[in-house]
Design brief:
The complex is a heterodimer. Chain A is α/β, with parallel strands linked by helices. Chain A has two domains: 277 residues, Purple Acid Phosphatase, chain A, domain 2 (4-Layer Sandwich); 117 residues, Beta Barrel (OB fold (Dihydrolipoamide Acetyltransferase, E2P)). Chain A is built from seven helices and 18 strands. Chain A has a six-stranded mixed β-sheet with strand order 1-12-13-14-16-15. In chain A, strands 11-10-9-8-17-18 form a six-stranded mixed β-sheet. In chain A, strands 3-4-5-7-6 form a five-stranded mixed beta barrel. Chain B is of the alpha+beta class. Chain B contains 30 helices and 32 strands. Chain B has a six-stranded mixed β-sheet. A six-stranded mixed β-sheet of chain B has the order 17-16-15-14-18-21, with helices on both faces. A five-stranded mixed β-sheet of chain B has the order 10-5-7-6-22, sandwiched between helices. Chain B is globular. The chains are: A alpha/beta, B alpha+beta. At the A-B interface, helix 1, strand 5 and helix 4 of A face helix 23, helix 29 and helix 30 of B.
C-alpha cells in the first residue's frame, strides 16, 4: 500500500494486498431499544438453522420423519430440531442478589459453573422436552445451540436421544490459488495499556518491528511482508469503576485518558506504515453487549485521520486478498469455558464453527443486543482464518471440513502477558508467533 | 377449609341452617394467653339424604366419553377377591371423621329405631383403596354432678322431667326418645385439689349430638325437681364435639390406622358413597392402632393439586356471574411419590399439545366443568390442595356452574347425592384482620389450601404464590396478569397452550410446596400427637388440641372437665413475662446465652401446676395442708405437691417431652427419608404442643381457662430470670476467683445473655456451662448469637433497610470492621440521594385489609389503592392483596399518605422518589440503633456527612409544566444548550473523557439488561416466547422495567456521538 523509507540504502517495499471490510451485519445502526425482548433472536436463529438442518435430514437419516416438539409421540422414532437449553444448578442468577441467606464463601470456583446434575432440554417455538440418553453430553453443549436429534419420546415424557446432528462447517469461498508470495496478517490482542502488566517497551518493539525500524535486513524483509494488522480487543485497561456517576477527579481523568492517548500514539505509528484494524474488547471503552460497536473515533484524534486506520466491530470479519478472516476479542469462547467443558480452548473455537454460531450463549449468559429480525452471529460462510483474542496462551489448529474446507483456528494470547503476536501467512494459512518478550532469561 | 365439627353437614330439608358462626384462627405458639379468641365448638346435625339422583349422573356420564376413556388409567387399584368376599380384615388410615344422622342400622342394632348419629370415617388402605366406614351405636352424652340427696331411685323421675323439657324445645325432631338414658357414675371434677377420690355424677345420654347443647341449656337455666326445688346444674364435658368425643372414647387419634376384623363389618347392598370399601360396624368392634412401627406409616393418599383460569372482562377481576372458566389444570400425586401420575389440563376451545401432559379440549364451558367433575369422581382424591382454592377456585367453580345452570356439577364429594355447598364466613383474628372467606364442603375429601396454611404458619412479606415459591423453593414463577388472560384465550391454540402451561405450573407449585414444607407429614403427626382430626388443625385454634389431650388423660384418671363458661376462675389479666432491660452497647467479647429449654413447660412440671392440684383459698384453710405438701407460687396461688396429687397437665407435658426425646432419638437412627420425615414432623408437633399448654390455661375465652395456673407460670418465669441474673452476677466475680465480673446484658421470656468478660468463645462457653450447672433444676442449653428480631425481619420496611442492616451487622459483628460498615452505609446513602438505588429496594409493601373508605385514618397504601382503582380498576389491588408503593416527592407539606405511588407508575413517568423520606423515616432509626454503640457521632457521621451533599432528582415526564416544555439539545458535558452536535465549544477538549463516561453507562446498562431479561426467560421456561410476567413480587420486576427504559435513553444519548 505504501512504501517507506528505511535507514539502509536498500529500500524495501511493503507488499500490497486487497482488503475488504465485511462488518455490516455486526453494526447496529438505526436499531433501537423499543422494548423488544430476546425471544426474537432465538426465533431467527432457530428459523435459519432449522431450514438448514432439515435439508440435511434426508441424507442423515433417510427413513425418519421430522417432528416438532409438540408432535412427539411416545415410542415413535423421529428427528426433532430445536434450540438447546442447558439447565444448570450452579449457574449464577441475578436473583441471588436478593436471596436472604448470605453465603460466607462462594460455593463454586468462579470460572466454571458445571455440575454433574446439569441436563439438556430441547426447545422449539411449540414447546420444550427434556433430553435423555448418553448420545448428547451436557458437558459439551450450551444453551442456544441449534441441533437436530434422532430419538424417541419415553413414557416419562423425556426424549431419548440416539444420535445428534450438528450443522457442521459452513461452505467456504474458494481460496485463491495464485498466491505466490508470502504475505502476513499480524494478529494481536490484550495490549492492556494502563494496566500493571503492560510493558511499554514491548509494545514499542512491536511497533518498530511492524514499521520496519527494527532489526537487520532480513527482519525488515519480514516486516515488509506484513500487509495488515488486527488488534483484537482489550487494548487499554479501562477502569469502569471510576464511572459510578460522580464527576471525575482530575487525577482519575488522567489515569483514564492517558492509556488511550498512549494507544493513539502507537496506532498512529502503525497506521502510518500499514493498514490496521482495531476491535473493541471487554475492557475497552466500548459498549458491553455483543456485537460491540467500533471504538469511537474521537478517542483516536491522532490515528483516525489515516485511511489505513479502521475502528471495527467485535466480532470482526474481513477479506485480505480473498482470504476470509473472522474473529472475536474472546468473550464468546471465555463464556463457553464457563458453561461447558473441553480439553483445549481450540476445541471451543472448533465447536462454534461446527454449530455455525459465533456466540451460542448470547443472549443467555453473554450480553447481546436484542435483535428483532436476525441473528448476526450465525456463520454462513466458513472463514479461512478464525481467530479469538485475549486467550491465556497461543495455540492454533488447521481444521479440515467434510467438503474440503480448510480453516486455521487461532487463539491469540494476551500481548501484555506474553509479548506474543501471531503472523498468518496468506499463501498457505501457516502461522507463527513473533515474540517481543523483554524478559531477560 | 372445613370447620370439621360444623361442616360436612347438610341441614334437614325443612330447617334453615344456623348462620356460620364467627370464627377465630389459632394463634402461634405460645399463644398470648389474654384475650385470645377461640371458637365455640358446636355440633350441627346433618340428615342423610338417601334419595336417588344417580340416574341423572349416569345418563350424563355416557355422553362424556372423553373422560371415561381415560378413567382406567386414573382409577384406584381394583379390590382383591379377599376384600370382595369380606374375608379380610379391613385396615385403613383415616383422614376424616364426622357424623351423619340417619335411621339406625337394623342389623347391627336390632333393638333401636328412629334416627341416630352415625359416625362416618373416611380413609385409605395400604393398597390404596378408599374406605368409608359407618360406625353405629355410639351416642352423645355429658355429665352433671349428682345433686346431693338424689338417689338411684330418683333418676327415672329426673329422666322424665328432662325428657319433657327436651320435647318442648325440640319440637320437630323425629326421635322416639330424647334422653336415651341417665346413669349414675363415680367421677371427679378436674378442678381443684380434692381429698375424696370420687363423687357421684349423672351421665346423661341423648339421642342426637345437637341435643347435648339444648339439654345443657335446659340444665343451665335450671329445672324444677320435686323435693329439691328449682335447681340449675353445672354441666361437664358438654362442649365437646361428637366426633372428638367418639375419638377420645375409642382411643382414636387423628390420622391413625383403624382395623375392623372380618365378620365384624357388614356391607349394605346399596352403597351411600363412591368409596371402594363401604361398610357398617359397631363402635365397640373398631380397633385403633397406635402410631408405632408399621402403623406409623402413611397410606398412599391421592393428592389432587389443581388451579383454574378464568377469562375476566377488561377492567374487572373475574366474577363467576359473568366470566367463564377457561382452563382447569390437575396433577394427582400419590402420597410419598415424587412425581404426579396424572397431569392434565382441561381447556375451553382448542389447545396445542403439551409434552407429558394430557390436554383435553372442549367446545363449551359446560363440558369443561362436567369433565372436571367426572375426573374428580374417577380419580377420587383423598386430599385436594391448591393455592387459595378455598377462597377462590372452588367457590368460583360452584358459583359458575350455578350461573350456567349445571345442576349436576357440584356432585364432587364422595357421598352420593351430596352437593358441594359454599357458604360465606368471616375469618377474623388479631393477627390477620378481618377477611371475608368462603367455606366449601366436599364430603369425604380433605381440602388443604396452601395459602391458608402458609398464611398461618409463616410470617412473610407477601403471600402471593410467586413470592411464597421464591421463598421456599427459590424459584420465581411467571405471573400473567389476569387482564392478559382473556387475550391469550381469544387467540389461537398456541396462545391457549401458553396459558395452559402457566395454569399447570400454578397447579404444580402447591404440590411442590406441600412436599417441601412436609405439610402432610407434619399435620398428620400433629393430629396423632394431639388426637384431633386433621381437618381441625387448619380450621381450629390451638386450644382444641390441648383439650383433646386433656380429655384423653382425664378419661384415664376418671376425671371430668367442667364446661368452660362456668369455670370458677376470675376473669382478669395478670402480669406477663419479664424482660430485663437491655444494656445497649457494642460487646466485642463473646456473649453466652443461657437458654432455658422450654421454660414454661418446665415450670409447670417442676411445680406441679394443674387444675387438679390447685387449692382454693377456702380449702387452704379448711384442709389443713402442711407446708411440705404445698407450693405457694410467687403470684400467691397454692398448689399441692406431687406427693399428694400428681397434676394432669404436668403428666401430659412429661409425656410430650419424653415422646419428643424418643422421636429425636429415633430420628437420629432413621435411615429411610420417609421415616425421617414422619419423625421430624412428630418431634416438631410435640414441641409445639408442649408449648401451647400454657396458653390454653390463660385463654380467657377458651375451653377451660385457669388464670391461677397461667399467672403462676409467668411469675415463676420472672423469678427464674431474675434469680439467674443474680446467681450469675454474684458467682462470676473477681471476688469469687474468676477473671472478670460477669454481667447480664439482656434477658427475656426464656433466655438470659451474659457477658463473662473473657475474650474467646470457647472460654465463654465453658463458663456458660458452669453457670448452667450452677443454676440447678432448670434445663439450659447453649445457642449462638443470632440477629433475629432486629429490623431485618420487620415486614413493612423496604428491602433497602433490610439489606443495610444485615450488611452492617455482618460487617460489624462478623468482619469486625466498623469503619467498613460506616463506609458501606455512607455509599448507600449517597446512592439513595443520587437516585442510583434500584427501585425495587425502595418498595414498601402493606396488606390492604379494608377498602379506602373503611380506614379511619388515611394510610399510604389505602389511598394509593383508591387512586389506582381510578386509573385502572383491573390492575388495582383488592382487599387482601399486599400493596407495593414508594414514597415520591410532592408539594411541600403533603401528607405521607398522599405521597405514596405505584412503583410502575413512577418508572413510567420518571417521577422522583423522595430520598429524604427514606433517609429519615426508614433508614435512620435502625441504623442509629446499630451504630450508636460503636461509632461516635453516629448520626452526624452517617446521616449528615459530606456524602449527603450531592443529590440528583429525575424530571417527571407527566407533571403539568413539562407538557409545555420543549426539549432543547444540550451539551452532553455541561448541559449548556447547543444548536447541534454533541458538545459545546468549552467541552470539546474533554471529548474522550465524556465519551468514555457515556459509553460506560451504556455498558453497565447493557450488562444488567441482559442478565435481567434472560433470567425472566429462564423463569418462564421458554426461549422463543416473549416474557409476559408482571409479578410485582419478583425482586427484579421493577429493575427489569427500568433497565429497558434506561437502555433506550442511554442508547439514544450514545448515538449522538456518531458523527
Amino acid at each position: 500500500m505504501e512504501s517507506m523509507e528505511i535507514d539502509s540504502d536498500k529500500v524495501q517495499q511493503r507488499k500490497q494486498s486487497n482488503y475488504s471490510y465485511l462488518d455490516e451485519r455486526f453494526e447496529i445502526q438505526k436499531e433501537m431499544y423499543r422494548g423488544q425482548q430476546y425471544s426474537q433472536i432465538y426465533f431467527a436463529r432457530l428459523h435459519l438453522m432449522r431450514t438448514l438442518l432439515y435439508s440435511f435430514a434426508p441424507t442423515w437419516k433417510p427413513h425418519l420423519p421430522v417432528c416438532k416438539v409438540l408432535g412427539l409421540e411416545e415410542g415413535k422414532e423421529c428427528i426433532i430440531v430445536g434450540t438447546l437449553f442447558k439447565h444448570m444448578k450452579l449457574k449464577p442468577c441475578v436473583l441471588d442478589e436478593y436471596s436472604k441467606e448470605r453465603s460466607v464463601t462462594p460455593l463454586v470456583k468462579p470460572h466454571n459453573f458445571m455440575h454433574p446434575d446439569d441436563n439438556l432440554i430441547l426447545e422449539d417455538e411449540s414447546g420444550r422436552v427434556k433430553l435423555g440418553g448418553s448420545a448428547l453430553s451436557p458437558a459439551i453443549y450450551v444453551t442456544g445451540v441449534v441441533v437436530a436429534l434422532h430419538g424417541k419420546e419415553t413414557s416419562a415424557g423425556e426424549f431419548f436421544v440416539e444420535d445428534v446432528l450438528e450443522a457442521g462447517l459452513p461452505p467456504q469461498i474458494e481460496r485463491p490459488l495464485d498466491l505466490q508470495e508470502d504475505k502476513y496478517v499480524l494478529l494481536l490482542s490484550g495490549l492492556c495499556i494502563g494496566s500493571t502488566s503492560s510493558n511499554p517497551l514491548q509494545f514499542q518493539l512491536l511497533v518498530d518491528h511492524i514499521t520496519g525500524h527494527l532489526g537487520d535486513d532480513e527482519e525488515i524483509g519480514l516486516a515488509s511482508q506484513i500487509v495488515h494488522v488486527v488488534i483484537a480487543g482489550n487494548s487499554v485497561e479501562f477502569p469502569r469503576k471510576l464511572f459510578t456517576g460522580q464527576n471525575l477527579a482530575s487525577k482519575d481523568q488522567s489515569t483514564l485518558y492517558e492509556p488511550i492517548k498512549e494507544l493513539d500514539i502507537m496506532l498512529n505509528q502503525i497506521a502510518a506504515g500499514v493498514s490496521v484494524d482495531i476491535m473493541p474488547g471487554l475492557n475497552d471503552p466500548a459498549n458491553f453487549a455483543l456485537p460491540q460497536q467500533p471504538l469511537n473515533r474521537c478517542l483516536f484524534p491522532g490515528s483516525a485521520p489515516y485511511n489505513t486506520f479502521r475502528s471495527c466491530t467485535n466480532p470482526h470479519s474481513f477479506d485480505v486478498d480473498n482470504i476470509r478472516f473472522l474473529g472475536t476479542s474472546g468473550q464468546n469462547i471465555d463464556d463457553l469455558e464457563k458453561y461447558s467443558e473441553a480439553e483445549s480452548k481450540l476445541d471451543f473455537v472448533e465447536r462454534t464453527l461446527r454449530w455455525r454460531h459465533l456466540a451460542p450463549t448470547a443472549p443467555n449468559t453473554l450480553g447481546c443486543y436484542p435483535f428483532t429480525d436476525r441473528d448476526p452471529f450465525l456463520i454462513e460462510t466458513c472463514p479461512h482464518v478464525y481467530f479469538v483474542g485475549n486467550q491465556d496462551k497461543y495455540d492454533n489448529r488447521l481444521l479440515k471440513g467434510s467438503e474440503g474446507q480448510l480453516v486455521r483456528l487461532i487463539c491469540i494470547p494476551k500481548f501484555c502477558e506474553t509479548g506474543i503476536a501471531v503472523a498468518v501467512n496468506l499463501r498457505n494459512l501457516e502461522c507463527h508467533t513473533i515474540s517481543f518478550s523483554t524478559q531477560i532469561s | 377449609m372445613n370447620r370439621a365439627g360444623n361442616s360436612k353437614k347438610r341441614p334437614p330439608p325443612s330447617n334453615t341452617p344456623p348462620a356460620g358462626k364467627h370464627r377465630a384462627t389459632g394463634n402461634p405458639t405460645p399463644s398470648p394467653p389474654v384475650g385470645t379468641l377461640e371458637d365455640e365448638f358446636v355440633d350441627e346435625d346433618v340428615f342423610m339424604d338417601e334419595g336417588d339422583e344417580e340416574s341423572l349422573i349416569l345418563r350424563d356420564m355416557e355422553e362424556r366419553e372423553a373422560v371415561s376413556a381415560r378413567s382406567s388409567t386414573w382409577a384406584r387399584p381394583p379390590l382383591s377377591p379377599a376384600y370382595l368376599s369380606n374375608s379380610q380384615n379391613i385396615i385403613f388410615q383415616q383422614l376424616e371423621i364426622d357424623y351423619v344422622i340417619r335411621e339406625s342400622h337394623k342389623e347391627l342394632l336390632p333393638g333401636s329405631s328412629g334416627q341416630a348419629a352415625v359416625i362416618r370415617i373416611f380413609g385409605v388402605t395400604r393398597e390404596g383403596h378408599s374406605v368409608c366406614c359407618y360406625v353405629h351405636g355410639f351416642e352423645p352424652y355429658f355429665y352433671i354432678a349428682c345433686p346431693p340427696g338424689m338417689g338411684p331411685d330418683d333418676i327415672s323421675h329426673f329422666h322424665q322431667i328432662l325428657e319433657g323439657r327436651m320435647r318442648e324445645s325440640n319440637k320437630n325432631a323425629s326421635v322416639p326418645k330424647f334422653v336415651r338414658h341417665i346413669e349414675m357414675v363415680q367421677k371427679r371434677s378436674i378442678m381443684y385439689y380434692q381429698q375424696q377420690k370420687s363423687q357421684t355424677f349423672l351421665k346423661i345420654t341423648v339421642a342426637l349430638p345437637t341435643m347435648v347443647a339444648s339439654c345443657r341449656g335446659i340444665l343451665d337455666r335450671g329445672i324444677h325437681i320435686d323435693g329439691l326445688g328449682m335447681k340449675s346444674f353445672q354441666t361437664y364435658e358438654s362442649n365437646i364435639v361428637f366426633a372428638l368425643r367418639f375419638m377420645v372414647d375409642r382411643d382414636i387419634v387423628g390420622g391413625n390406622w383403624i382395623e375392623v376384623p372380618t365378620g365384624k363389618y357388614k356391607k349394605d347392598a346399596r352403597t351411600l358413597s363412591y368409596c371402594q370399601l363401604e361398610f357398617h360396624c359397631l363402635y365397640s368392634d373398631l380397633i385403633s392402632h397406635a402410631a408405632e412401627g408399621e402403623y406409623s406409616k402413611m397410606a398412599p393418599f391421592r393428592v389432587l393439586s389443581f388451579d383454574i383460569e378464568c377469562a375476566g372482562r377488561k377492567g374487572h377481576f373475574p366474577e363467576a356471574k359473568h366470566d367463564p372458566v377457561i382452563q382447569i389444570a390437575n396433577l394427582v400425586t400419590l402420597q410419598g411419590e415424587d412425581q404426579p401420575f396424572v397431569r392434565n389440563v382441561m381447556t375451553l376451545k382448542s389447545c396445542a399439545p403439551i409434552v407429558g401432559v394430557d390436554v383435553m379440549s372442549f367446545e363449551t364451558e359446560r363440558e369443561v366443568l362436567l369433565a372436571w367433575r367426572d375426573f374428580i369422581r374417577d380419580v377420587d382424591p383423598d386430599i385436594i390442595i391448591g393455592y387459595n382454592i378455598c377462597k377462590f377456585d372452588l367457590p368460583y367453580l360452584i358459583e359458575r356452574a350455578a350461573t350456567l345452570g349445571i345442576d349436576e356439577f357440584p356432585l364432587l364429594g364422595r357421598v352420593k347425592n351430596s352437593r358441594v355447598r359454599v357458604r360465606d364466613s368471616t375469618f377474623s383474628s388479631r393477627q390477620q384482620g378481618t377477611r371475608e372467606s368462603k367455606e366449601t364442603t366436599i364430603e369425604g375429601r380433605f381440602q388443604f389450601d396452601l395459602f391458608q396454611a402458609i398464611l398461618r404458619d409463616y410470617k412473610l412479606s407477601s403471600y402471593s404464590l410467586n413470592s411464597v415459591s421464591a421463598h421456599f423453593l427459590s424459584e420465581q414463577k411467571e405471573d400473567v396478569h389476569h387482564s392478559i388472560i382473556t387475550d391469550l384465550q381469544n387467540g389461537n391454540a398456541e396462545t391457549r397452550r401458553r396459558l395452559a402451561v402457566y395454569c399447570l405450573k400454578d397447579a404444580y407449585l402447591p404440590q411442590r410446596l406441600l412436599d417441601k414444607l412436609m405439610y402432610i407429614y407434619n399435620y398428620v403427626e400433629m393430629a396423632r400427637v394431639t388426637g384431633v382430626p386433621i381437618s381441625f388443625l387448619l380450621a381450629r385454634g390451638q386450644s382444641i388440641k390441648v383439650l383433646s389431650q386433656l380429655l384423653r388423660k382425664s378419661k384415664q384418671k376418671n376425671l371430668v372437665l367442667p364446661n368452660a363458661k362456668q369455670s370458677g376462675s376470675e376473669q382478669g389479666t395478670y402480669e406477663g413475662a419479664t424482660v430485663l432491660e437491655a444494656k445497649t452497647g457494642f460487646y466485642e467479647k463473646p456473649i453466652a446465652t443461657l437458654d432455658f429449654a422450654s421454660l414454661y413447660p418446665s415450670i409447670m412440671m417442676a411445680y406441679n401446676l394443674c387444675y387438679c392440684t390447685l387449692v382454693t383459698p377456702e380449702d387452704v384453710r379448711k384442709l389443713n395442708l402442711s407446708p411440705e405438701q404445698i407450693n405457694k407460687t410467687p403470684s400467691g396461688e397454692t398448689f399441692v405437691k406431687q406427693s399428694l396429687q400428681k397434676g394432669i397437665l404436668p403428666e401430659i407435658l412429661e409425656e410430650l417431652i419424653a415422646a419428643r426425646k424418643r422421636a429425636k432419638a429415633d430420628l437420629k437412627e432413621a435411615k429411610d427419608p420417609l421415616e425421617k420425615a414422619v419423625l421430624d414432623g412428630r418431634q416438631l408437633a410435640l414441641k409445639i404442643s408442649a408449648n401451647s399448654v400454657y396458653g390454653f390455661t390463660g385463654a380467657t375465652i377458651g375451653q377451660l381457662p385457669c388464670l391461677e395456673i397461667s399467672s403462676s407460670v409467668t411469675s415463676y418465669g420472672r423469678q427464674m430470670i431474675e434469680q439467674t441474673k443474680k446467681f450469675v452476677e454474684d458467682k462470676f466475680t473477681t471476688l469469687g476467683g474468676y477473671e472478670y465480673n460477669a454481667e447480664v446484658i439482656y434477658g427475656d421470656t426464656d433466655s438470659v445473655m451474659v457477658q463473662f468478660g473473657v475474650s474467646d468463645v470457647e472460654a465463654a462457653m465453658n463458663l456458660g456451662r458452669e453457670a448452667a450447672e450452677y443454676i440447678s433444676g432448670t434445663f439450659i442449653k447453649f445457642d449462638k448469637m443470632d440477629t433475629k428480631g432486629i429490623e431485618t425481619v420487620r415486614r413493612d420496611n423496604c428491602l433497602l433497610v433490610k439489606n443495610l442492616v444485615t450488611e452492617s451487622l455482618h460487617k460489624i459483628l462478623i468482619d469486625r470492621d466498623v469503619p467498613g460498615a460506616a463506609e458501606y452505609v455512607k455509599n448507600t446513602i449517597s446512592d439513595l440521594l443520587m437516585n442510583r438505588i434500584d427501585l425495587s429496594l425502595l418498595v414498601i409493601t402493606k396488606g390492604l385489609t379494608k377498602t379506602g373508605d373503611d380506614y379511619e385514618v388515611k394510610s399510604a397504601h389505602g389511598e394509593l389503592a383508591e387512586r389506582m382503582r381510578k386509573r385502572d380498576a383491573a390492575t388495582a389491588p383488592n382487599v387482601g392483596d399486599r400493596v407495593p408503593y414508594v414514597i415520591i416527592k410532592a408539594a411541600k407539606g403533603a401528607k405521607a399518605y398522599e405521597r405514596s405511588e405505584d412503583p410502575i407508575y413512577v418508572l413510567q413517568n420518571n417521577i422522583p422518589i423522595d430520598p429524604n423520606y427514606y433517609l429519615e423515616n426508614q433508614i435512620s432509626k435502625p441504623l442509629l440503633r446499630i451504630f450508636e454503640p460503636v461509632l461516635k457521632n453516629a448520626s452526624k457521621e452517617l446521616l449528615h456527612g459530606s456524602h449527603t451533599r450531592s443529590i440528583s432528582i429525575t424530571t417527571p415526564s407527566n407533571s403539568g409544566i413539562m407538557k409545555f416544555a420543549k426539549k432543547q439539545l444540550s451539551c452532553v458535558g455541561c448541559k449548556v444548550p447547543i444548536s447541534n452536535g454533541t458538545l459545546c465549544q468549552r467541552c470539546k477538549g474533554r471529548e474522550a473523557e465524556l465519551y468514555c463516561k457515556n459509553v460506560s453507562q451504556v455498558s453497565d446498562l447493557e450488562e444488567v439488561f441482559g442478565r435481567l431479561w434472560t433470567q425472566c426467560q429462564e423463569c418462564q421456561g421458554s426461549l422463543h416466547q416473549d416474557v409476559l410476567c408482571t409479578s410485582r413480587d419478583c425482586p427484579i420486576f421493577y429493575r427489569r422495567m427500568k433497565a429497558q427504559k434506561d437502555m433506550a435513553v442511554a442508547k439514544q444519548q450514545l448515538d449522538r456521538w456518531s458523527f
